[in-house]
Amino acid sequence: MEYLIIIPTYNEAENIKKLLKVILDLKLVSTDILVVDDNSPDGTSQKIKDLVKSQNLNNKVYGLDRKKKEGLGKAYIAGFKWALLKNYDKIITMDADFSHHPKYLTKLLKESEKYDVIVGSRYIKGGKVVGWSWGRYLNSRGANIFTRAILGLKLKDVTAGYKCYSARFLRAINFNDLVSPGYAFQVEMLNLAQEGPFSIKEIPITFTDRRVGQSKISGELYRSAIAIIRLAVRKQIYRQFIKFSIVGISGMAVDWLVYFTATRWLRLFYLSAKIISFIFAATNNYIWNRAWTFRSKEKKIAKEFYKFISVSVIGLSINAFIMYLIVGIFKLNDLLGWLLATMIVLFWNFIIIKFWVFKK
């Protein structure tokens, strides 16, 4: 195995030489270091070059100079492309400010033999954060909870930056399709790993806040939130929910049209008309959801249709029960009851129909 440690830098002149010395003192076998510098005004790149020259590290430490600061994600992508061209097998990412301590490198490399992605996690058993204010800790925790929820990620620390990737995983990525130039890049990489056939493992680390230099996280919260929302829109389940809602609106239109026709023109009893309009609306929804929303491949259409109607009937019953509770028991506004009942049943129908009716 050939390993590469990628360290992105911007104004890390006070840290980088010390960090490189600690890593080199570990004497890791078949492990090189690439420092990707975004044209730091403080001369970080020159310090690296001086170190390489003075200690004859030409075949151990490399520098990759970029023309301008474009964000953490762009720096890592440049490093990944460099690593893949040089045919490294495993690629580690870490910060330059000692928040990711080099002592965990040995364990990362060992675990990487069995997994495609190893994450140095602050939020699993054995992991912790040192030196943060309560405000920053709660901000990080909140960002993790929000991101995990909206993207359905299973890991505990989805914003972690101390990782090891396999070349197999990195070669499967189209870097031009990535949407996160900044810190949300860390989340996007884990999202891709979870969606693909790749193995992931978290190992506990102690994250220590930087002691020297200035944090680069300022202003990233808003940009990261936008990137996370863009990632969510790309996920199949969110696209399906939007389509499912559109189909539901079309079903409501069919329901109203048939009911109006049956009661006003055909003079049918209103309950009979409602049963007929429900069947027409449910059939409309089934056809469009099968063909457009979920693109079902189930060959037993009659069985699938029966399951769909069953879910719809249960949803209708839940709707009526919620309306009764809100309007009949709690004496609240009927429009509020209608809105709440509709939203609850919408989510109920979507989940059951996606994972039971149209599971194929």
CATH architecture descriptor name of the largest domain: Alpha-Beta Complex
Helix content range of the residues, please?
Answer: 55-70%
Instruction: Estimate the strand proportion.
Output: 5-15%
Shape, principal axes of CA atoms: elongated
- Per DSSP E runs of 2 or more residues, the count of β-strands stands at 9
Distance between the termini: 40 Å
Structural class: alpha/beta
CATH hierarchy, class of the largest domain = Alpha Beta
- What Rg, in angstroms, do the CA atoms define? 28 Å
How do the strands and helices of this protein lay out in sequence?
Elements: E1 3-9, H1 13-25, E2 31-37, H2 44-54, E3 61-65, H3 72-85, E4 90-93, H4 105-111, E5 117-121, E6 128-130, H5 134-151, E7 163-166, H6 167-171, H7 185-195, E8 200-204, E9 206-208, H8 220-234, H9 236-265, H10 270-293, H11 301-329, H12 334-357
Parallel strand pairs: 1-2, 1-4, 2-3, 5-8, 6-9
Antiparallel strand pairs: 4-7, 5-7
Helix pairs in contact: 1-2, 9-10, 10-11, 11-12
Q: Care to describe what's here?
A:
With 360 residues, this protein is an alpha/beta fold. It folds into 2 domains: 3-234, Alpha-Beta Complex (Spore Coat Polysaccharide Biosynthesis Protein SpsA, Chain A), CATH 3.90.550.10; 237-357. Helices cover 56% and strands 12% of the residues. The protein has helices at residues 13-25, 44-54, 72-85, 105-111, 134-151, 167-171, 185-195, 220-234, 236-265, 270-293, 301-329, 334-357; strands spanning 3-9, 31-37, 61-65, 90-93, 117-121, 128-130, 163-166, 200-204, 206-208. A 7-stranded mixed sheet has the order 3-2-1-4-7-5-8, sandwiched between helices. It has a two-stranded parallel ribbon with strand order 6-9. Helix 1 (13-25) packs parallel to helix 2 and helix 10 packs across helix 11 (301-329). The longest helix is centred in the last third of the chain and has 30 residues, at 236-265. The mean pLDDT is 91.
